[in-house]
Amino acid sequence: MIRIATLAALALAATPALAQAPVNPGKPVEASIPFVNHGGIRDWRAQGDSTLYVQDQSGQWYRASLMGPAFDLPFAQAIGFDARGTDTFDRFASVVVHGQSYPVQSLVKVAGPPMKAKAAQAKPAA
After folding, report:
1. How confident is the model at residue 28, as a pLDDT?
2. Do strands 61-66 and 80-82 pair parallel, antiparallel, or not at all (unpaired)?
3. Following DSSP, what letter does each residue of 48-75 receive, concatenated?
4. Mean pLDDT computed over 66-76
5. How far apart are CA 71 and CA 76, in angstroms?
């Protein structure tokens, strides 16, 4: 009887810790950039035809993954950010390239865009 009581007490003590454990620790937290229609985005860089790196006014970089390929994205000199009336660029927004809208699948904070191949080769090894 003492064993059952001890096990029950341990199970109750562990319950709050289990309830606070992250559901999916490997999935990055979705982000948003406010004031996209009022200068909230400082810079952007295309990475292939379905990934876009976006920098906000404070210098923080974000990786936007598009739901499908935007074949003109790597060659675009200007793009638009369609926040769909909310003034916030997030996973519910779209990127406009040459008049075509491409929905964003995910927007997460990152350290910055990957270095270009020539810059990575020129950097001396540590």
Report:
1. 82
2. unpaired
3. TTTEEEEEETTS-EEEEEESS--TTGGG
4. 96
5. 10
Task: Give the global pTM.
Answer: 0.72
Structure tokens at 104: 């964003």
What lies within 8 Å, CB to CB, of 125 at 6+ separation is none
**In whole angstroms, what is the distance from residue 115 CA to residue 83 CA?**
28
- At residue 18, the pLDDT reads 46
pLDDT value at residue 116: 75
Over residues 23-27, mean pLDDT: 67
Q: What pLDDT, in 10s, does the model give residues 33-54?
A: 999 989 999 999 999 999 999 9
Q: Tally the residues of the chain.
A: 126
Amino acid at 37: N
The set of residues, in sequence order, having a beta carbon less than 8 Å from that of 58 and lying 6+ positions away, is: none
Q: Looking at this protein, which amino acid is placed at residue 111?
A: A
User: Which residues neighbour 99 within 8 Å (Cβ) at sequence distance 6 or greater?
Assistant: none
Q: What element of type H or E holds 6?
A: helix 2-20
